[in-house]
Design brief:
By secondary structure, this protein is of the alpha+beta class. It contains ten helices and nine strands. It has three domains: 110 residues, Butyryl-Coa Dehydrogenase, subunit A, domain 1, CATH 1.10.540.10; 102 residues, Beta Barrel (Butyryl-CoA Dehydrogenase, subunit A, domain 2); 127 residues, Up-down Bundle (Butyryl-CoA Dehydrogenase, subunit A, domain 3), CATH 1.20.140. The strands form three sheets. The protein has a four-stranded antiparallel β-sheet, with no helix packed on it. Strands 1-4-5 form a three-stranded mixed β-sheet, with helices on one face. A two-stranded antiparallel sheet has the order 8-9.
Length: 363
């Protein structure tokens, strides 16, 4: 049976991240959005919490916690409630850590995990999305041709923190299936483009990648000869993104709800009017529905069951849910919702990105 009672460990994670989101992220989000950068001290403080590297085995420098998609979903929601751009920046190393921990060879774990366990944030990342209108994560056009090692060719976009990453996990088509390849910084044939200018999450640095006859050793194929389970990694990413969407939507609901209670016209709070009250109620319903769908997918992933159906539904539902909730938040606040002094316009722009954020987070 599914339990809705978090464990003591999960309660600790929720409380720790909630405190960080309240004390740090909520006080810096607008400054980061306007400048397009996240202060180093914010990232350093988040890194010191040890949440991102907690699942790395002790022999490789981590805390050795058992990986849990449910715990990751709880963590991601709280971070996104603080700020989406900062949350995705903080979680970016997980794009490399989790696949290697779960599916890497012992040699890959020994080589790539210990450098990520130092005292400073290290921006390892992964590249999945391709810059084309008919992009399908299940049918990548980036190719990996075996020729002694592997030759990678293709283009990627929306790769977080690629400019400073010591290595990038690049997803490519190897024969008839998607596989993942560890590409070290400076590998010949790998070119990192200019920082992308995005509609939302402007404080998160994303880049395009060009791979032209980019040769990687055979030992850099994730999982070695047997490869990786791309479907599981894809589902873990769907759960992460759905959790982030819930966090953004929850912030929008709480802010607009409080505004509707405090804003009075004609002698009464605007929240007492049906048009406003119904929007707030719909937001609460949609958020709870999305969260529960996502928890089911995460629960099945933790049980090592096939969760493709549940993860796909949770992600698709969350994409629509976050747009509805952030749009309603703007409407509840009227003209004030369109003004940059209030956060709902930022959450609306951030929420619109979830349909394009494929593979940009994992828990």
């Amino acid at each position: 049976m599914i339990s809705f009672s978090p464990s003591e460990e999960q309660k600790m994670v929720i409380n720790t991240v909630k405190q960080f989101a309240t004390d740090v992220m909520r006080k810096k989000y607008r400054e980061c959005e306007e400048s397009g950068e996240i202060p180093a001290e914010v990232i350093d403080t988040a890194w010191e919490l040890g949440l991102v590297i907690s699942c790395i085995p002790e022999e490789h420098g981590g805390a050795g916690w058992e990986h849990s998609a449910v715990t990751g979903a709880l963590l991601a929601e709280e971070l996104a409630w603080g700020d989406l751009a900062m949350a995705m920046h903080i979680l970016t190393p997980s794009l490399a850590i989790l696949p290697i921990v779960e599916m890497g060879t012992e040699e890959q774990k020994r080589k790539y995990l210990p450098p990520l366990c130092g005292g400073a944030f290290t921006a390892a990342t992964a590249a999945l999305t391709e810059p084309r209108y008919n992009f399908d994560a299940g049918a990548l056009q980036t190719t990996a041709s075996k020729n002694g090692g592997y030759m990678l060719n293709g283009s990627k976009c929306l790769v977080p923190l690629a400019d400073g990453a010591p290595f990038t996990l690049v997803y490519a088509r190897d024969g008839k299936e998607n596989q993942c390849f560890i590409v070290d910084k400076g590998t010949q044939g790998l070119a990192v483009g200019e920082k992308e200018k995005n509609m939302g999450v402007r404080a998160l640095a994303t880049y395009g990648l060009e791979l032209k006859d980019c040769r990687v050793p055979a030992g850099n194929k994730l999982g070695g000869d047997k490869g990786c389970n791309f479907a599981r990694l894809d589902n873990l990413s769907r759960v992460a993104l759905a959790s982030l969407a819930v966090g953004v939507a929850r912030g929008a609901l709480e802010f607009s709800r409080d505004y509707a209670r405090e804003r009075h016209t004609f002698g009464e709070p605007i929240g007492s009017r049906q048009a406003i009250a119904f929007m707030l109620a719909d937001m609460a319903i949609e958020i709870d529905a999305s969260r529960l769908m996502n928890w089911e997918a995460a629960w099945k992933l933790d049980r090592r069951e096939d969760a493709t159906r549940e993860a796909c539904l949770a992600k698709a539902y969350a994409d629509g849910m976050v747009m509805l909730c952030t749009d309603y938040a703007v409407q509840v606040m009227g003209g004030h919702g369109y003004v940059r002094d209030n956060p709902v316009e930022l959450w609306f722009r951030n929420g619109r990105g979830f349909t394009a954020f494929t593979g940009m987070a994992i828990v």
